[in-house]
């Protein structure tokens, strides 16, 4: 049998998408290094305790709660290419502060707090801008494979990043590893800089920022599918956030796992996500986009229950938890990538930034509340019972789609939406 020569098709023929994809690969790999290196620097160099390390992680995520609505309103007014460029350069510049201050013996926890917060702020803007950018560098019919391709490279970074980052930290030290991360963002900026400047921005006067935010919130509230996507994501993240501190205490404290084995268990989830990231487009073609969004909830809901059952029975629990997390990882991108593609297709072009920010605010804003509740319940009623309460909330994520009409979508909308109805004006 003769093999046919491989030809680039679809998204891989787009030079603009290839640059966005490569930039995502470079920055995702570097991001995994800093995720590992910053806590190590805090503990090994600055002798930080658990509270200070927890505070560092909280500060890094705080911009995801404070700024998405404002960022989304501004991104609708600005060229997405310029926003991505500024964010990459900004993250590179702020991260360089860590190795520079470490090498002159001036590094402190306040510097890490500020670095984490500022870098997190740039990341918040970057995430919203690239999601708004994706429909500009791909054809509408290629949105699902484009989102899947970026999901695949991010999953590869999550699988290999911690292992490579750990080796890099051990070889050159935490500050030098952060320098590598800064250089990765600079490389991403060079790729984004090569994108063409052909985005058409909304002409005319803009309403006040607060008015635009209200307009975005009102649009999501009135659109049944976008509202269902936001609420379902919020419920799901809330349940996963409840589980996060409970699993950490169970595996590290009660089961006595080493940090390496603990990290390996969660790396398997990323392996599952990598495998699952090849499935969104085939599944959507087979059963329809709407079905590919709704029915995977059953798969990762059962896997979620399997994790709780493993903790309750406490027989080979780490192994069973690792398998269940991998199964979750397989189902997750089928839902995530198809709902991302559908909501980007349904969002008016001139409102895409602020509408994306509202959805992200709904989803990301539930995480700290869920984690706080999960930890509190774990102390009051025990880890096992708290996990089953989290499991009980999982079906609500699927019920959010009831009556939304999402199952009617076999494919993505074929016509671009150029204008949005005036809401709240």
Please, could you describe this protein's structure?
The structure is a single chain. The chain has 17 helices and no strands. The N and C termini lie far apart (65 Å). The chain is mostly helical and 425 residues long.
Q: Which labels suit this protein?
A:
0% strand, 17 helices, disordered C terminus, 425 residues, mainly alpha, single chain
How do the strands and helices of this protein lay out in sequence?
Blueprint: H1 15-45, H2 50-61, H3 63-66, H4 68-75, H5 80-103, H6 109-137, H7 143-172, H8 174-193, H9 209-222, H10 224-254, H11 259-276, H12 280-287, H13 289-294, H14 296-313, H15 317-346, H16 352-381, H17 383-399
Give the overall shape.
Answer: globular
Helix content: over 70%
Mean pLDDT: 80
- How far is the first residue's CA from the last residue's CA? 65 Å
Work out the radius of gyration: 22 Å
The fraction of residues assigned to DSSP E strands is: under 5%
Largest sheet: none
Q: What letter string, H or E per element, gives the SSE order?
A: HHHHHHHHHHHHHHHHH
DSSP strand count:
0
**How many distinct helices?**
17
Q: Provide the low-confidence segments as ranges.
A: 1-9, 415-425
**What structural category characterises the helix and strand content?**
mainly alpha
Brief summary of the model shown:
The chain is mainly α and 425 residues long. The chain has helices at residues 15-45, 50-61, 63-66, 68-75, 80-103, 109-137, 143-172, 174-193, 209-222, 224-254, 259-276, 280-287, 289-294, 296-313, 317-346, 352-381, 383-399.
